[in-house]
Specification:
Number of domains: 1
Helix content: under 10%
CATH superfamily: Porin
Number of helices: 4
CATH class: Mainly Beta
CATH topology: Porin
Shape: globular
Structural class: mainly beta
Largest sheet: 16 strands, antiparallel, barrel
Strand order of the largest sheet: 3-4-5-7-8-9-10-11-12-13-14-15-16-19-20-21
Radius of gyration: 22 Å
CATH architecture: Beta Barrel
């Protein structure tokens, strides 16, 4: 997230105008947060003194002193080449508007804040079509308070699961993390009765629910506990309410975490499939270098409706390096695998042993603090689902991403900054 006047103020345009802080105060390369940005978010956007005084609208209720909205969009070319088992291969390319979002955020009084990340349009690359007015990525209210050396935050609405490594909103790479998008349905290629694979919850999707977090700054210990509706961003009736617990411990600029995620039933519709996701994560940060990691073990008791349980495992390791103040590089390896799953002796027809892995590398150039060029390539292999399963895939992306206050787009912001004016 970035702003309209990069030489005067930077960051998400909303916060730039309110707090007058540069982009580097909260971000490495947007939208990735640095530790100061994480601290600002944990404090429900109350840890900085506003430069633009809030407007009092009632007793104990203030609103931002400037319109707290901005535009955020990315566009470019995606090329995908798949080599199928046998002599066949396919290649497709698409120049697309990847997303167009409205961003908003700010304080509402001394202890309450709001955050909005609403996507007006997004492109589904596989189907080459635009999706209009999908559910929000973020749309929540948060309240915070401090007592006995602890900082507590209560959040409700659409939000990202509180992992040490952001699975989506603050992810630096274009390609999503493999392990955060997996479930038994996708791994086995068998849709359960009454549900489609894409409707089942995954960790990488924003969820609807409530979260209670507590941080002890002196010791660096933090805990988040909450529940979600178990249907990703969709406001539909879920099979069950899902629960999670995430613990983290910070030591300087290193942070380790441990996730426990439980669903009493992923599927419903007469099929009981309780699920578990458990594993550690890691974030080691410096001004030029960052190491991100996650390992997860997943369990589902009945993914095909035949009473056969599935375990799967996987994770990623990512290195981000700032070559200069405007040029960053990233490299990542993703892996996931399952033991042999066979439900044929229970009346099913599935026998699968899945292995997936991928390598991602890329560069990101900050043309302006709120305007960047992204080049990224991923090579992936996928084995075990069947003879028609793609064995290897190349995906290349060239993209321009920007966010700005609509009245001051990036090129205009450069001109106003050169004249020494604050827009």
């Amino acid at each position: 997230m970035v702003i309209a006047a990069p030489r005067v103020t930077s960051a998400l345009p909303v916060f730039a105008r309110i707090y007058g802080k540069p982009c580097g105060a909260c971000h490495t390369t947007f939208p990735q947060l640095n530790p100061e940005g994480e601290d600002f978010r944990v404090h429900a956007f109350h840890s900085l003194k506003p430069e633009v005084e809030p407007i009092r609208v009632g007793k104990g209720v203030d609103v931002p002193g400037t319109l707290p909205l901005a535009l955020y969009f990315g566009f470019g070319e995606d090329v995908e080449s798949k080599d199928l088992a046998g002599p066949h291969s396919t290649t497709q390319s698409l120049f697309n508007l990847e997303f167009l979002k409205i961003l908003g955020g700010g304080e509402i009084g001394r202890h309450v804040a709001f955050m909005l990340d609403y996507e007006l349009v997004e492109t589904e690359f596989d189907e080459k079509k635009l999706v209009r007015d999908p559910p929000p990525y973020l749309a929540y209210l948060s309240a915070y308070g401090e007592r006995w050396g602890w900082l507590g935050t209560l959040k409700a609405g659409w939000f990202e699961l509180p992992l040490t490594v952001s699975p989506d909103i603050h992810r630096l790479s274009v390609r999503p993390y493999l392990i955060y998008g997996l479930n038994g349905c996708g791994l086995l290629g068998v849709a359960p009765r009454g549900r489609a694979c894409e409707d089942l919850p995954v960790l990488g999707q924003e969820q609807i629910g409530a979260d209670l977090s507590a941080v002890h700054p002196e010791s660096g210990f933090a805990v988040s506990i909450g529940f979600t509706n178990g249907s990703n961003r969709e406001p539909e009736e879920p099979a069950s309410r899902d629960l999670y617990l995430h613990l983290t411990q910070s030591l300087g600029f290193a942070r380790t975490g441990f996730l426990l995620f439980y669903s009493p039933d992923l599927i419903g519709h007469g099929v009981s499939d309780h699920a578990l996701r458990v594993g550690p994560d890691l974030d080691v940060y410096s001004r030029r270098f960052r190491l991100l990691g996650q390992f997860l073990a997943g369990y589902e008791s009945n993914p095909t409706g035949r009473g056969e349980a599935l375990w799967y495992y996987g994770g990623f390791l990512e290195v981000d390096h700032r070559l200069t103040t405007t040029l960053s590089a990233l490299a990542r390896i993703d892996v996931a695998w399952t033991p042999r799953f066979d439900d044929r002796d229970r009346g099913g027809s599935t026998s699968v042993r899945r292995e997936l892995w991928g390598l991602t590398g890329g560069m990101q150039w900050l043309i302006e603090d709120n305007l960047k060029l992204v080049a990224e390539v991923t090579y992936a292999e996928d084995h075990g689902l069947g003879p028609a399963q793609p064995e290897n895939t190349w995906v290349a992306t060239l993209r321009v991403v920007t966010a700005f206050w609509p009245l001051t787009p990036p090129l205009l912001s450069r001109l106003t900054a050169a004249r020494g004016q604050t827009p």
